[in-house]
Structure formats: structure tokens, C-alpha cells
Specification:
The complex is a heterotrimer of chains A (about 260), B (about 250) and C (about 290).
Chain A: E1 16-27, E2 31-42, E3 46-50, H1 57-65, E4 72-77, E5 80-81, E6 89-92, H2 104-114, H3 119-132, H4 148-161, E7 166-170, H5 178-194, E8 198-203, H6 206-212, E9 215-220, E10 225-230, H7 247-261
Chain B: E1 2-3, E2 6-7, H1 12-27, H2 36-46, H3 50-83, H4 85-100, H5 107-114, H6 118-142, H7 146-154, H8 159-170, H9 172-197, H10 201-212, H11 215-242, H12 244-250
Antiparallel strand pairs in B: 1-2
Helix pairs in contact in B: 2-11, 3-4, 3-6, 3-9, 3-10, 4-6, 5-6, 6-9, 9-10, 9-11, 10-11
Chain C: H1 12-23, H2 30-33, H3 39-45, H4 47-67, H5 77-89, H6 92-124, H7 126-141, H8 148-155, H9 159-183, H10 187-195, H11 200-237, H12 242-252, H13 256-285, H14 287-290
The chains are: A alpha/beta (about 260), B mainly alpha (about 250), C mainly alpha (about 290).
Keywords (chain B): Cell membrane, Membrane, Transmembrane, Transmembrane helix, Transport
Membrane topology (chain B): Multi-pass membrane protein
Organism (chain B): Jiella endophytica
């Protein structure tokens, strides 16, 4: 095979929403999951955390979300140090984390309700958000009546309607079949373009990361460190279908594969 | 629980309860609860006696025979129900009914038919143990992967071979779980049976101790019974975990 | 059902019902049963047909065994039904049930409230678990019926003793199921609650308790079954009252049809009672089960 083409180097970030500084995470006093992570997440863009299993990408995401404490270092969101979950961040879970006893609309309004919003108002917002993810008409259904793809749309609607600056997604499409995943990826691009939000996206799929990301943070495993930061130079304004045939897309996928291969057993 | 960074094992709290018991006993709050220390002293005194050992022996005999019958009947019946739709529909409603029915109400029936003796107690054990064994064996067979059965047939296994080489083994984790739960129910069955018959084993001992108000004796018998039941349940659970890799690898 | 986070096979007892439930689903060994039956075969293997056949077969077997008779103490099915009818007609059965149900209902309500509270506390707090769980684990495995003579010494032969018997029989399984249910709340659901800014109190009331409720209810049903065992045992062992009195008295005068009828009635009643709890659970707490697909 040919030698890998050079990756497009990351530009310095000027306006970052999330700043991670010298972050360490040690589990149970012995297992080092993350080591000295320093990275910025630029405003209004989608940044992926990509790496093989065991590289700590989900751990990093949960620390940013305030769900896990860091062992050392700090995370700042909009300049403020993170000490727990906050209203400026919303989370989309890998296994959807829907409450099976609650209807779609009750699941979607959960975040708004916890913020003390009145019922009529929060349902109004939730309805718009549900329509936004293409589930209009399913408001009173229950999670078990929906397909996996639809369930993740509910999870997404819940994260969108709290109107957070940062939306964090933990392998959101991994429990969804291949066809639906592709559709999701295309819709995600439209969403990123329309919403003025910052997205942080965890995935183990190289193709998915290159397809959706403005910026890819490549993590190496045991302990998780930053291997590389890549900004694929792909114009995403036009036809979303064309991206997968874009030469830069194909080259970047190849280059990342070469880079990651060295970490596999 | 973790105190000052140290993990304190779960059983340590039993020690705490034992101390509490001793204190209440020493304070003579109630005549019903003698101090633990005197109960333990009594333990060494009466456990070796002939009457206690014979009560234990009689109980163990009824318990073992009852369990053997329950397993010998229950497992094949469960496998049959798992395999045959007709057998399943004929028996399942009754198995479910008896699983949650107040079986103590049926003990008098056994008593009037079989008299006040070992047979009644053995049948009580069977009555308590068998239903969950049937149900779990059935669930085990139903969860066998179809490809495993197809494999057996495609390699030319006949019915008997398929049964002894595939069904029994593939359903083993559930069968064992059922047997463990059945045995735990059987412990309760054998004591309930003896209490109601009241002239056999511990039933007779309790009656004797009760009528003479021998509280230390009473607690000794309880302590021995509870300890044996607990050890039995835990060792069965340990055994079950050892075959658990089946269930895991079977997916 | 597959996605429901709480269809866990948890404690020894919770296990039984969860398993029974999952086994009730569609058979996975379709390949074995894939024969194409004719209309006649379909009629004979239809669930309703087989259920009727099964019930009829049992009644016939009972009738036959009573006619032989396999034992002088074994009445026929028809004799038993006649006795049941007589007891229903003169109201004696209702009077007996009214007495039997007193300790049973008081005991079950006390066990349910106390048991769920203790179990949930153990699930939420590690210190509570450390302190209480060994006691209940031993109690779950031990033949607690052996405590009955002691309870009689302490509280006499009245309602208190019988209620206590129901409690000690019903409580361990309720506590252990509630504990396991709370402890096994899916981590992603509690994380979801925290990440959407629910305070601890709300995480418990809105996420942990609803998520745990199916297994808690399974524990309550098992607790009720044990409570019935305890109530009958108390009436047979302590003093004959209520249904236990009918059983004991008719046995002593060799009126076997009445004895069998009383036993049959209490078994049927307990099964219906536990079924009613399940229905109540669905109606009150499980909107997703009522929803039509």
C-alpha cells in the first residue's frame, strides 16, 4: 500500500466553548484512564473524540459533562470550571436512557421540568423539538413502541430542547442499524449547520467521525492520551451524499486508519 | 461499607447483631431471649445428644428424599413442557397456580391421607420444592438456541441423543437455578411439615422445649437450623456460579 | 419488554416471577415446532381448548380418585363442590374468610410498607445495606416458621401473633426484592437525571423508584404468597380460627368434603388476590403497559 497522506493539521482555536486542561483520570486508585489531556472545543462546531475501545473517550466526555470527577486538571465551559452537570450542557446517551414508564413527551420535557418550567410552556417547546427530530405524532407513544432509531431521536430531542450551548453525544448511533445510522449522520450535519451549538461526539467509527466532524481528536489507549488532532478540509455546505465520495474524506479515513493501527493488539 | 477508607465486610454486621443479642439477653429484657453466650454453651451440650441428632437425622432424611423426588419428577416434566406445546398448555396453569398458592393449606390433606409420619413430611417437601424446579427446567429448555438443536439434528443425533447430549446440558444453568430455589423452598417445607405433624424431628423437639419452657434449647435448635439453611443456600449459589460460564458463553 | 431495564433476574425470589414472565414470551425454538397443523389439530392444540381440557381432566381425575376411593379421606369432586356450595349458602365461609383476612391484611400492609421502606433504604444507602442485608439474607434462606412457637410465647394466641407470623413470612422477600431493584437501577438513567440537573431527591422519586417498581411489585406478589402461607400456618398451628378452623374442625369430625372445600377456597382466593395485585400495578403504575401499540 501507499504511504499514508499527511493529515490536515489543526489550526489553533480562537473561540473555544469547552477547554480541557491537563486532565488526568485514575480509576480505583490504580487504572489510569486518561493522562494529561489538553484540548479545546471550538464554538459552533462538531468535534469528535475518536479512538479504539479502552482509550477513555467516553470517560473524557462524562468528565466534561460533570458526571464523573477528574483526578487532576480541569474543564472549563464558557470560562467557568466544571464541578458537576450544568444547564449549558446536554447529554445524549449511548443506550438512549429513556424512562420506559414515561411517554415520549414526558421523556423529552424531563430536562425542562427539572429547571422548573411550567407544564404548558415546556410541552410547547418539547413538541417543537420532537417535530425537529422528525417524530411529530409520536408524542404520546412509549419507548417500547418505538424502534431503536426513533428512541435515539427522542434522546436527541430531549437534549436539544433544554437549549444548551454544548450537546454531548456518547456513541449515539452505535445501537442503531447501518441504514438508519447513515440517515442520522446526514441529519446531524444539517442540525449542526442550523443550530448554533457546539457538538462533542464520541465514536469508534473512523468513517463516522470523518463524515460528521469539523475537528477530530484522536485518542490512543492505555492510558488515554491525545494522539492527534485533525481537521478534515471538507466542504459540507453542499450535497451531504457527496461527502462520502470526496477525495479528502477517503484520504482522511485512510490516514486515521494508518495512525490507529499501531495501537491495536 | 467503607469506614475511614477501609472496607468492612458484610458479615461483620452479623457480629454486631450478635453483640446486640448478647446485651439484650444479659439485661434480661425478656425471658424469651437468653444471652447468645448461654445459647452457644447449650449448643455444645445438646447437639451431641441422641434426641437432637435423631431429630436432625429424621429431618435430613425427609429433606433429601423429598428433594430427590422433586428433582426426579420436576426436571423431566419441565423439559417435556419446554419441548411440547400440548404438555405445556396442559400443565403450565397448574404449575403457576401451585407456585404461588398457600401450600400450607394442602398439608392437612396429605396428613389425612398419609397419616402423621415421615411420608407426610416427605410429600410436603416435594410439594414445596417441585413447582419452581419444573418452571425453571422449562425456561431452560425454551432458551436453548435453535441453532444448537439444528446442529445436533444435522449431525444425525437421534431423539434420545439429542435429549441426553443437548437439552440436558444446554438447559443446565436454569435447571440448577431451579433446583437451588426448590431446595430453599424445601427447607421451609420440611419445617412447616414437622411443625404441623408435630411428632417428628424438630417439630417434636420444639413442642418439648416449648412445653417445658426451655428457651436456651429452643434458640439452640433455631440457631442450628438457620445456620444449616444458610450454608446450604450459599453453597448451592456457589455451585451455580461455577456453571454460570455456560450461560454467559451461550449468549 | 427486552428493553425494559428492570426485567432482571435478581434475588432468589424475584427470580421466580421474572423468569416465569420472560418464559411466557414467544418461543425461541420455533424451528422445532414448525409443522403446519390441519384445522382439527389447530382446534385441539388451541390454548383455550387445552386449558379447558386440562381443567376437565383434573376434575375427572379427582372425581375418579374419590369414587375408587384412593383413600377414605378423599372425597369426590362433586361432594367437595356440594360442601363448598353449602358453606357459601349458609354464609359460614364468608364469616371464616372475614376472620382469616384480618391478620393477613394487617400483616401484608405492615410488611409492604416496612419492607419496601427498609429495602429501598438499603438500596440507596450502603451503611443501611451493611447493617441489615445479612439479617434478611439469612431470613430468606431460613425456615422462619420455626419462630412461630416463640411468637406464641411472647404474644399469646391472638391476632397479634398471627399478624406477626404473616409479617415474618412476607417481609424478607419484599425487603430483598426492593433492595435489589433499587440497587440495579440502570446507571445511564441516573446519569441522565443528573445531567439534566435533577436534584438527588428528584432522581430518587422520578427515576430510581419508577425504575425499581416492577421488581418491587414482583417482591410484593411473592410476599403476599408467603403471607398467605403464614396466615394459614398460624391458623392451623396457633389456634384454629377462620378458614383454619373449618379445616381443623371438619378434619376432626371426618367431614372431608367440607375440609377440602375450605382448602380449595383459600387457594383460589390467594391466586385471585395475587392476580388482582398485578392488575392494580398495571392500572396504577404502568401506563406503558396499557398503551395500545
Amino acid at each position: 500500500m501507499n504511504a499514508p497522506i499527511a493529515l490536515t493539521a489543526a489550526r489553533p482555536v480562537t473561540d473555544s466553548v469547552v477547554e480541557v486542561r491537563n486532565l488526568d483520570k485514575i480509576y480505583a486508585g490504580t487504572v489510569q484512564a486518561l493522562k494529561d489531556i489538553t484540548v479545546d472545543f471550538p464554538r459552533g462546531q462538531l468535534t469528535s473524540l475518536l479512538g479504539p475501545s479502552g482509550c477513555g473517550k467516553t470517560t473524557l466526555l462524562k468528565i466534561i459533562a460533570g458526571l464523573l470527577p477528574a483526578s487532576a486538571g480541569e474543564v472549563r465551559v464558557n470560562g467557568k470550571v466544571v464541578s458537576g452537570p450544568g444547564p449549558e450542557r446536554a447529554f445524549v446517551f449511548q443506550d438512549f436512557a429513556l424512562m420506559p414508564w414515561a411517554s415520549v413527551i414526558k421523556n423529552v420535557t424531563f430536562g425542562l421540568e427539572m429547571r422548573g418550567m411550567a407544564k404548558a410552556e415546556r410541552e410547547e417547546i418539547a413538541r417543537r423539538s420532537i417535530a425537529r427530530v422528525g417524530l411529530a405524532g409520536f408524542e404520546n407513544r412509549y419507548p417500547h413502541e418505538l424502534s431503536g432509531g426513533m428512541r435515539q431521536r427522542v434522546g436527541l430531542a430531549r437534549a436539544l430542547c433544554v437549549d444548551a450551548d454544548v450537546v454531548m453525544m456518547d456513541e449515539p448511533f452505535s445501537a442503531v442499524d447501518e441504514q438508519n445510522r447513515r440517515k442520522f449522520q446526514e441529519e446531524l450535519l444539517t442540525l449542526v449547520a442550523q443550530e448554533k451549538k457546539t457538538f462533542i461526539f464520541v465514536t469508534h467509527s473512523i468513517e463516522e467521525a470523518v463524515y460528521v466532524s469539523d475537528r477530530i481528536v484522536l485518542l490512543s489507549p492505555r492510558p488515554g492520551r491525545i494522539a492527534e488532532i485533525i481537521e478534515p478540509d471538507i466542504n459540507r455546505d453542499g450535497d451531504t451524499e457527496a461527502i462520502r465520495r470526496h477525495p479528502v474524506y477517503l484520504d482522511t479515513v485512510d490516514a486515521i486508519w494508518y495512525s490507529l493501527k499501531t495501537y491495536l493488539d | 461499607m467503607i469506614v475511614f477508607g477501609r472496607r468492612i465486610p458484610m458479615v461483620a454486621s452479623l457480629l454486631l447483631w450478635a453483640i446486640l443479642w448478647e446485651i439484650i439477653g444479659q439485661l434480661q429484657v425478656t425471658i424469651l431471649l437468653p444471652p447468645l453466650s448461654s445459647v452457644v454453651m447449650r449448643l455444645f451440650e445438646i447437639v451431641p445428644t441422641a434426641s437432637f441428632m435423631s431429630a436432625l437425622g429424621v429431618t435430613a432424611y425427609a429433606f433429601i428424599v423429598g428433594n430427590v423426588i422433586a428433582i426426579a419428577v420436576g426436571v423431566p416434566l419441565g423439559i417435556l413442557m419446554g419441548r411440547s406445546v400440548i404438555a405445556d398448555r396442559l400443565f403450565l396453569p397448574w404449575v403457576n397456580l401451585f407456585l404461588s398458592a398457600p401450600l400450607t393449606a394442602l398439608v392437612p390433606v396429605i396428613m389425612v391421607i398419609f397419616g402423621l409420619g415421615q411420608t407426610t413430611i416427605i410429600l410436603t417437601v416435594v410439594l414445596f420444592a417441585i413447582w419452581i424446579i419444573v418452571l425453571d427446567a422449562r425456561a431452560g429448555v425454551r432458551s436453548i438456541s435453535p441453532s444448537l438443536v439444528e446442529m445436533a439434528h444435522s449431525f444425525g443425533a437421534n431423539r434420545l441423543q439429542a435429549f441426553t447430549r443437548i437439552y440436558l446440558w444446554a438447559a443446565l444453568p436454569e435447571i440448577l437455578a431451579g433446583i437451588r430455589l426448590g431446595v430453599i423452598r424445601a427447607v421451609k417445607g420440611v419445617i412447616i411439615g414437622q411443625l404441623l405433624v408435630s411428632i417428628v424431628g424438630f417439630g417434636a423437639l420444639f413442642k418439648l422445649y416449648g412445653s417445658r419452657f426451655l428457651m436456651e434449647h429452643f434458640w439452640t435448635a433455631l440457631l442450628v437450623l438457620f445456620a444449616l439453611a444458610f450454608i446450604l443456600a450459599e453453597s448451592l449459589a456457589w455451585l451455580e456460579r461455577r456453571v454460570d460460564f455456560y450461560a454467559a458463553s451461550r449468549g | 419488554m427486552a428493553e425494559h431495564p428492570n426485567q432482571l433476574e435478581v434475588e432468589p425470589a424475584g427470580f421466580a416471577l421474572a423468569r416465569e414472565r420472560s418464559a411466557g414470551g414467544p418461543s425461541r425454538k420455533g424451528a422445532l415446532l414448525d409443522r403446519r397443523p390441519g384445522a382439527a389439530t389447530r382446534f385441539f392444540t388451541h390454548p383455550v381448548t387445552l386449558r379447558i381440557v386440562s381443567a376437565a381432566a383434573l376434575c375427572l381425575a379427582w372425581q375418579w380418585a374419590g369414587t375408587v376411593p384412593i383413600s377414605p379421606a378423599f372425597p369426590t369432586f362433586t361432594e367437595t363442590m356440594a360442601a363448598l356450595w353449602a358453606m357459601l349458602a349458609d354464609g359460614s365461609l364468608f364469616a371464616a374468610f372475614a376472620i382469616t383476612l384480618q391478620p393477613l391484611l394487617i400483616g401484608l400492609v405492615v410488611s409492604a410498607i416496612l419492607g419496601v421502606a427498609v429495602g429501598v433504604a438499603m438500596g440507596l444507602d450502603e451503611r443501611a445495606e451493611w447493617f441489615a442485608s445479612p439479617i434478611f439474607i439469612v431470613a430468606q434462606a431460613a425456615p422462619l416458621a420455626a419462630l412461630i412457637p416463640l411468637i406464641v410465647f411472647a404474644y399469646g394466641i391472638g391476632l397479634t401473633s398471627k399478624t406477626l407470623v404473616v409479617c415474618i413470612m412476607a417481609m424478607p422477600v419484599i425487603v430483598l426484592n426492593s433492595f435489589a431493584a433499587v440497587r440495579h437501577t440502570p446507571v445511564s438513567l441516573t446519569e441522565m437525571g443528573r445531567s439534566f440537573l435533577a436534584p438527588r431527591r428528584k432522581v430518587i422519586s422520578r427515576i430510581i423508584l419508577p425504575a425499581a417498581s416492577p421488581v418491587i411489585f414482583a417482591g410484593l406478589r411473592l410476599g403476599c404468597a408467603s403471607g398467605f402461607i403464614g396466615a394459614i400456618l398460624a391458623e392451623l398451628l396457633i389456634t384454629p380460627t377462620g378458614v383454619g378452623d373449618i379445616i381443623t374442625y371438619s378434619r376432626s369430625i371426618a367431614d372431608y368434603p367440607s375440609m377440602y372445600a375450605a382448602i380449595l377456597s383459600i387457594i383460589v382466593f390467594s391466586v385471585v388476590f395475587i392476580e388482582a395485585i398485578e392488575q392494580a400495578e398495571v392500572i396504577l403504575f404502568r401506563p406503558e403497559k396499557r398503551a395500545s401499540p
